[in-house]
Amino acid sequence: EFRRVLFRSAPTVAPTAAAAATKPAAAPTTAPAAAAGGGFDWKKYKGESLSVLLVTSPRADVLTKNQKEFEELTGIKVEADVVPEQQQRQKTVIEFTSGNPSFDITQISLHVQKSLIGKGKWMLDLNPLLKDASMTDPELAFSDFGKPSVDYSTQADGRMDTMPNNLDFWIVYYNKEIFEKKGLKAPQTHDDLVAAAKAIHDPKAGVYGFAGRGLKNANVPVWTGLLHGWGADTLDPKDMSLKTTTDEAIAAATLYKELLSKYAPEGVVGFNWNECQTAFMQGTVGIWYDGIGFATPLEDATKSKVVGKVGYIVTPKGPKAQHAAMFGDGIGITNATKKKGPAWLYIQWATGKANQARLLSSGGGSPARQSAYTSADATKNLTVPKEWFDTLVASTKVGRPGLPQIIPVTEFRDIFGVGLTNMISGADPKAELTKATEEFKPVLEKSLKS
């Protein structure tokens, strides 16, 4: 059951603003009140405690900032452990494999962990709980979740082992002040991107044209995102053959090499998103290409020197197409926990309308709920420019999965990530992609047979 059917592609688009408009329910600014006299009982597990494992991100910020709300609503105490992305992923796999995870609830990066989690059946199928009126608050309104989000959270066998939380689209951030000084307009194509980076780049003055992930593994979405500009992917979902040495794949890798070897800050081979973000916030970088959920700190005057100077645009068009690389995360319950009831209350609260609206208004991501996009509260309370919101809505119309939906996606990122890092130091893109493809092919074939 975990062979070819498991590797179906994720949906190519996310909920659009137009689709959201067909569901006008506004997102509340507070969580539902505990029932009094016959309604849903949020206090049924009062006195319990939960351990929650989250990824360091704006999504986690929303949950931890408002955690007291859940505790007061339910009487359940929550201990939230917020861990950097790579370490969190390692921790989940190690503890799931041990059979005795220390957490009751965890956040899952669907673009990396979905197939592996599904194969191990480490997380609880939420479908039965959704159908149980005694366990699910009617206000959960599951139909409010967009189909692409639900599909992304659903395994090939029909088990939905996470609740949809966020879809992340990659965009371009640019420094308007730097662009204006150079007489540049926002890049609309790949060629514009390179030309702007070249015009801005002035290391002697401490200004760099482009920032992107150079660190192995983390850097692969930069390449695959650029590859979408040729209307191409790294894997053929029909026959599961690798498309990593095609002319398009080599061209995208060559573009990656040019941007990061010629116009990026020194030491970019060690950059993940946080190093890129830090450099951009200091006002020393003209263009940054990464996920849309990083806007909040850029507009925070206590952390950023570019407040009010940031431009947000959809990923520029390539030679043949324009797509925004799409990633996502969900949150679910471990199969091993003895606290499934309390954990389900937390999941309902965490992915409720209030928190989804907060996620949008903070600029922390792309909510899975359609109502968030038409919520007057969410748009009125935006802590980031409306340009960010408009870019998000436009990106949902051109979303395309940023990574292949395969079990060994981590190995894919590791192997091809090394090749990309080597390119920054001068290695030939074609040679590196050929070498990586030969190394990864047997890994993929083995996973298809297991």
Q: Care to describe what's here?
A:
This protein is of the alpha/beta class and 450 residues long. 41% of the residues lie in helices and 14% in strands. The protein has 19 helices and ten strands. It has helices spanning 17-21, 58-65, 67-74, 85-98, 110-120, 127-130, 147-153, 176-182, 190-200, 220-227, 247-262, 273-281, 295-298, 340-350, 353-361, 376-380, 386-396, 409-424, 429-449, and strands spanning 49-55, 77-83, 105-109, 163-175, 208-211, 285-291, 310-314, 324-333, 366-367, 399-401. Strands 1, 2, 3, 4, 5, 6, 7, 8, 9 and 10 form a ten-stranded mixed β-sheet that branches. Helix 18 (409-424) runs antiparallel to helix 19 (429-449). The protein starts with 16 loop residues before the first helix and ends with a helix. The model is unreliable at 1-29 (pLDDT under 50).
Detail the topology: elements first, then pairings.
Elements: H1 17-21, E1 49-55, H2 58-65, H3 67-74, E2 77-83, H4 85-98, E3 105-109, H5 110-120, H6 127-130, H7 147-153, E4 163-175, H8 176-182, H9 190-200, E5 208-211, H10 220-227, H11 247-262, H12 273-281, E6 285-291, H13 295-298, E7 310-314, E8 324-333, H14 340-350, H15 353-361, E9 366-367, H16 376-380, H17 386-396, E10 399-401, H18 409-424, H19 429-449
Parallel strand pairs: 1-2, 1-3, 5-6, 8-10
Antiparallel strand pairs: 3-8, 4-6, 4-7, 4-8, 4-9
Helix pairs in contact: 10-11, 18-19
